[in-house]
Amino acid sequence: MSECWDSSIKDELQMVEEEIRRSIRSEQPILTEICEYVISSGGKRMRPGVTLLSYLANGGRETDDVVKIAAAFEMIHSATLIHDDINDRSEMRRGRPSAYKKFGLQQALVGGDFLFVKAFAIGGFFDEEIVGLVADACTAIAESEIVQFEKEGQIAPLDVYLRIIEGKTARPIMAGARIGAYLAKAGPDRIHAMGEYGLNIGMAFQIVDDILDIIGKQGSLGKPLMVDFHEGKATLPLIQAMEDPKVGPRLSKLFRKKRKTNADIEEASALIAMTDTVERARQRAKGYAERALAALEGVQDSGHKQGLIRLATMVVERDY
Amino acid sequence: MSECWDSSIKDELQMVEEEIRRSIRSEQPILTEICEYVISSGGKRMRPGVTLLSYLANGGRETDDVVKIAAAFEMIHSATLIHDDINDRSEMRRGRPSAYKKFGLQQALVGGDFLFVKAFAIGGFFDEEIVGLVADACTAIAESEIVQFEKEGQIAPLDVYLRIIEGKTARPIMAGARIGAYLAKAGPDRIHAMGEYGLNIGMAFQIVDDILDIIGKQGSLGKPLMVDFHEGKATLPLIQAMEDPKVGPRLSKLFRKKRKTNADIEEASALIAMTDTVERARQRAKGYAERALAALEGVQDSGHKQGLIRLATMVVERDY
Q: Looking at chain A from residue 234 to 293, which residues have their Cβ under 8 Å from any Cβ of chain B?
């Protein structure tokens, strides 16, 4: 299967790009520039992609509305990335300076606000149900960020980690999948099932992201490795490794250090490599991907359904 | 006339408070706490007040919808205050530590995002026209902030100053006034006139705010005096004073200094006091207030219209 997960929606994804470009026009060129910079930085377009595929796989035909909502989800995602990088003082994002680094804190903060506003302006074309789903997803993002700040530097238990990634990654994708099915006039059961697909794909995606922070090829993610460890964010592979009877105690000690040296990071990498945590985390991601696939059972076969299936495979197997 | 401008809408303003309290509930108590902290810090509630009065003065009777929109405007206003204080590194706001100072940058940034989201979620109950007006107002705020950053430290010309205060203060109040009339099913001309009222009241209000930054009683604004001068923000009274043939050259030199000492600020205060800039700025604010009053001409007399009239007076005469 050489096709990409998004090969059946190339045209629609292009329309999403155009919708975004239209939405981010501003009297102040710098605002448009900040938005362009972040949006064109090579994101995978998974959020709009899932929304579009959910719509089309459920028999939707008129793409105008779903393109708008898909664009709004990508814009919200980009806005949160801009604000996240401010909060984490992240200097790199996708191989380039972060917006915060490139444009400065003030401009980046307002740029993120501007993107949020423009995304919600798109909401004006839709009913209460849809705006509610988008707003709930944004609320989940904000709430999970708060949990993440509070747990920084702590070896948080697994359920806290799962709650964080559900809020920041899985629930927004779930909302997009649900809205796609809703706009296609699918029934409540199908809308629910598509939500399950989105939720589980999102969990799998984020776990793999957290694995790649540890073992990705340096540079292929466009940022340094071991950022989560450095920042004291207890991701699944880190939590599991710190529970390892042999290396756990030493690794935990390094994790808790407020100022970690390069030598600390290198030692931590080596300790993690002595455990099977990456493999176990990938197995867990696979479990989510399988649940995502199971949720598609009732959906009639089509090129778009195949796209959703391929996405579930890609999400777990990707190494970038 | 001993009545306050908002005495005819006490009940409705109370309903706005309740709507805001409902909207900012969160699974994460800290988010609710940040929002409560900012919203309960003694703002004048001018934005919701103008929206409510515009609705009621134009014959609106069912207050449920207008209360929701009024709440959304206050929430957006509070969100921008939180983010502004981060951008300006302001430590005080209304006599208390700013949210940024009290809760830290990360929590305040996300708290502001959360408030934006909750305000826009309210938009889901309204049509495209209303969401568009709210979103345009938010866009104007973001764009004027960008202009403000770009001009920081420069003696910006008057038209730039007017554009900044129109975007950050007057256009949001204009949008609220327009929406109030729209919800009351006023005709296009009346909606336009109420917008003119809001726009002009907003201009007057901000000019007086900028005057009070110079001559307010220390502490009565809940923040130090001469903050704009210190931060290099060229407000109307500062621009005019720097054009004064006698004190202008010295004042401009002090204004352009990147690091200003207390002695610089004291000297600048004394120089400004030698000019008539405050009186001239107040005259200009009065001009806007008069235009606001003129826009009310066609509105039938009522307690609510009297409230709008009293607001126009209060805005110019206030000393806090």
A: none
